[in-house]
Design brief:
Layout lengths: L16 H32 L2 H28 L2 H24 L5 H29 L5 H29 L3 H18 L16 H14 L1 H30 L9
Helix pairs in contact: 1-2, 1-4, 1-5, 1-6, 1-8, 2-4, 2-7, 2-8, 3-4, 3-6
Amino acid sequence: MTAAPPVSPPVPLSRNRDYRLLWGSQALSEFGFHTALIAFPLLVLALTGSGAASGLVMGTIAAAQMVAGLPAGVLVDAYDRKAIMLGCEAAQAVSAVSLVAAVWAGAATVWHMVVVAAVFGASAALFEPAESASLPALVADEHLPTAVAMNTARASMGQLAGTATGGFLFAVGRFVPFLVDAVTHTLSFVALLFVRLPRRERSADGVGPLGREALAGLRWVWRERRIRVTVVCAVVLNLFFSAFYLVVIVLAESRGCPPGRSV
């Protein structure tokens, strides 16, 4: 009776090609996203001088994230996760390019920015669960906590670096933050093409109607007190920080600080 061949140890994250591609692509993408995010209210104020219009654009991002986030888990379970991630990156790149062209041509409008903001918010809400659900297929179980921690650190670094850079780039040129966002999402899209994400086995039961599945998920969240409190806190904090950035920018500009130097 022959002995079973030894099981090779799992590939560490530092040599995990697919995880490094995913992590690096999203480091770029999140930097570009937050670069554009801080530039949205600056651009609206520069074009209209209206704090209310800036609030509309920023509120659209938050609302789109909230609305798209409701069925996001069901969609991620029902459809190909890599295709969802690629679609999100492509949508953000195309919408950012459209805004770059409009600003360059002097044809940007508030309603155009509202549409782009909705695409940004919805894409971010769909991408995050698709990426999180893909991690177990890319890394070994013992490396999963480290991978999640690295993703969290990446998100924080992207937010800090993008927010700090966005105001400076806006001072260079109104279209520049959105151009950076378009480039980073395009590069991320290309990198994602090379991520080898195994196809999932479909369950025999399949996935029920999206509306019913989403409602079932909401009921579960509402029944679980700790999850419910966590979700409510996350929503409130997101709304607070969106409003906080806007208030700081509006106050700074009302005191004569030129656009791009108020952040």
